[in-house]
Amino acid sequence: MTDREARHAQLAETYLPDELLERFRERAARYDRENAFFDEDFVELRDRGYLRLFVPEELGGPGLNLAEVSRLQQRLATAAPATALAVNMHLMCGGVVKAMFDRGDRSLAYVFEETMAGEVFAFGISEPANDWVLQGSNTVAVPQGDGGYLLSGVKIFTSLSPVWTRLIVHGLDSTGEPDLVYGFVDRDAAGITVSDDWDVIGMRASHSRATILKDVRMPPGRVARHVPPGRVPDLLTFAITSNFQLLIGSVYAGVARRALDLAAAGLKRRTSAKSGTTYAEVPESRARLADAYLDYLPVPAQLETYCRDFDDVVDHGAGWPLRLVSARINASAAARRAAETALICSGGSGFGNGDEVSRLFRDATAGLFHPPSVDAARPMYAAALLDD
C-alpha cells in the first residue's frame, strides 16, 4: 500500500467507518420512502467533524485537500447518495475558500471561521432559465449606499434546505455597467422564503428546494466578488466550478461503484432454469456486467488526477473547463449505466421501489440535471478541436 492509499484508508476509518455507512444505508431507504431529509445522517456527520474537512489546520480543522475529500465523498455515496450530494454543497463552499487560500487569496477566511462555529453553507447559484449559470444571473442586485446589495430572485436546487444557515449567491447589478455580484446571505435575513415543494424522482433526501429572495440584504462585508457577465476568468468562479464539478462527479462515481457491487450480487443470487446455473455463469450476463465495469474504471482515475492537479495548482489554462466538466459528465454517465445494469442483473425484485437497486437507479437520473448539461457542454469541446 502506498503512503497515499494508507492516508485514504486512515481518513475513511476516521470519518466514514463501515458501521457508520451501514447505518446510513439503512436510513437511506426510509428517507427515500418518506421523502424525508437526512437529519440523523447530518447529525452524525457534523459530530464527526465532516463539515470541517477543508478547514486548514491553522484554523482548527483537519486541512484535507480536494483529492482526499473526493475519495471520502465517493465512499459516502456508496451508502447514501442523497446525503453525499447534499453535504457536497456545504463542502464545496469550504473547498472554494481553500482553493483561494492555496492561491494567495484569504479574503473569505470568515467562511472557515463560521464553519468552525457550526454554520452550514449551501449553494444558491442555479436559477430557472439561466443556462449561463455562473456567467450570468436572473437575480436582481440593487446596490445600497453602504456597499451592500438587496437581492431579488429565485435560486433552485438549493440542497440542505432544512439546515443551511449561510447561502452563497450571485446577482446582476444593472444600474451601470453590468456587474455580477457574488457573496453570502444569512438564513435569518428578511425576505428569504424556502419552498416546501420537493417531491422528485431521486436524491429525495437532499431536499434541494428552491429559495426565493425578495430584497434580501447582502451586507458589504459579505460581498465576495464583482465579475463582469460572460466568460471572464476569475479565481472565485474558477474555484466554484472546480469544486462543484469534481465533487459532484465524486458522488456519481460512488453511485456507480455501489451499483456494480449490487449487479454482481444479483447475478450470483439468481438462477437460470435454462442453463441450470446462476446468472453469474451466463455469458450474456457476464458481458453486460463487464461492459458497465469498463465504463466505470476510468472515472475514479480521472477524478483523482484532476483533483490532484487542482490541489497542486497545476496551470491547465483554458483546458481546465474541458477537464472539469468531462469528469462530472463521465461519472454521471457511468452511474446511470451501472444502475441500469444493476436493475437488469437483479431481475424483477430490483424493480420494487423499496429495493436499493431501484433507488440507485432513480438517484442516478439526477446526474442529468447538474450544469452544464451534455448538450450545453458539447460546443465547448467542439470549439477546442476546431479552433473556433
Provide a descriptive summary of the structure in words.
- The chain is of the alpha+beta class and 388 residues long.
- It folds into three domains: 3-116, Acyl-CoA dehydrogenase/oxidase, N-terminal domain (Butyryl-Coa Dehydrogenase, subunit A, domain 1, Orthogonal Bundle), CATH 1.10.540.10; 121-227, Beta Barrel (Butyryl-CoA Dehydrogenase, subunit A, domain 2), CATH 2.40.110; 235-386, Butyryl-CoA Dehydrogenase, subunit A, domain 3.
- Helix content is 51%, strand content 14%.
- It has twelve helices and ten strands.
- The chain has helices at 3-15, 18-34, 39-47, 66-79, 81-102, 109-116, 235-269, 283-296, 298-311, 320-346, 356-365, 374-386, and strands spanning 121-124, 140-143, 149-158, 166-173, 179-186, 192-194, 209-218, 223-227, 271-272, 277-278.
- A four-stranded mixed β-sheet has the order 1-4-5-8, covered by helices on one side. It has a four-stranded antiparallel β-sheet with strand order 2-3-7-6, with no helix packed on it.
- Helix 4 runs antiparallel to helix 9, helix 7 (235-269) runs parallel beside helix 10 and helix 8 (283-296) packs antiparallel against helix 10.
- The radius of gyration is 21 Å and the shape is globular.
- The model has no long low-confidence stretch (mean pLDDT 97).
> Which CATH-level-2 architecture of the largest domain?
Up-down Bundle
Strand-residue fraction?
5-15%
CATH topology of the largest domain: Butyryl-CoA Dehydrogenase, subunit A, domain 3
Outline: globular
CATH homologous superfamily (4th level) name of the largest domain:
Butyryl-CoA Dehydrogenase, subunit A, domain 3
Question: Poorly predicted ranges (pLDDT <50, ≥5 residues)?
Answer: none
User: What characterizes the major β-sheet?
Assistant: 4 strands, mixed
- The DSSP helix count reads 12
DSSP summary, beta strand count? 10
Order of helices and strands, N to C? HHHHHHEEEEEEEEHEEHHHHH
What number of structural domains do the residues give?
3
| Range of helix content | 40-55%
Mind telling me the CATH class of the largest domain?
Answer: Mainly Alpha
CA-atom Rg in angstroms: 21 Å
Distance between the termini: 46 Å
